[in-house]
Write a structure and sequence with these properties.
Layout: H1 4-8, E1 13-20, E2 23-30, E3 34-42, H2 49-57, E4 64-73, H3 79-85, E5 92-96, H4 101-112, E6 117-120, H5 132-135, H6 137-142
Length: 155
C-alpha cells in the first residue's frame, strides 16, 4: 500500500478525487509505461548468453517494457552466431569488431539505449533476471533516480 504523499508526487500516477455521500475517495491510476533498457555486454559467453536472454524474455513486470540490447564485444567463440540465430530474444544487437572491454561495450550500448532507465546484466548469469521485479520496485513506486544492488548482501 502506497501512502498518498508518495503517490501525489509520483509522475507515474494520475489522481482522481471524487465525493460520494460526503466521503472523499481518491483513485490512483498508473498512467505511464516505463521502458527499461537492459544492456548485456557479451564477450565469449556462448555457454550462457542464450539462457540469459531466454530468462529475460519471460520477465513480466506490470507497466514496464524491456528493451534488450546485447553488445557483442569482439567475441572469438560462437556467441555472435548464436545471437544472430536468436534475434527474437533481444531488441538490438551491437556488434563490435574488436574487444573494447566491458566498459567500452557498455558505452557503445548506452549510445543506442532508448529507455527511461538502464539496467546492466552480465551475460554469464551472475545477476538473476528473476530479480528484476525487486530491483525495479523503487523505480515504479517511488521514481527512484538510481537503484544499486549487491549480491554480497544476500544470505
Amino acid at each position: 500500500i502506497l501512502s498518498s504523499d508518495i503517490i501525489r508526487h509520483c509522475k507515474l500516477y494520475t489522481s482522481i478525487f471524487y465525493i460520494d455521500n460526503g466521503n472523499l475517495f481518491i483513485l490512483f491510476l498508473q498512467t505511464t509505461m516505463l521502458k527499461i533498457s537492459i544492456l548485456i555486454p557479451c564477450f565469449n559467453e556462448e555457454k550462457t548468453i542464450i539462457q540469459v536472454l531466454k530468462t529475460i524474455g519471460v520477465q513480466e513486470i506490470k507497466n514496464i517494457t524491456l528493451e534488450v540490447i546485447v553488445i557483442n564485444d569482439g567475441s572469438s567463440d560462437n556467441s555472435l552466431s548464436l545471437l544472430q540465430e536468436n534475434k527474437h530474444l533481444y531488441s538490438r544487437l551491437v556488434n563490435l569488431d574488436e574487444n573494447l572491454g566491458k566498459g567500452g561495450a557498455v558505452i557503445e550500448g548506452l549510445k543506442v539505449a532508448e529507455g527511461d532507465y538502464v539496467l546492466f546484466q552480465d551475460a554469464d548469469l551472475e545477476y538473476d533476471p528473476n530479480d528484476y521485479h525487486l530491483i525495479l520496485k523503487p523505480v515504479v513506486l517511488l521514481e527512484a533516480d538510481t537503484v544499486f544492488g549487491s549480491s554480497n548482501l544476500a544470505p
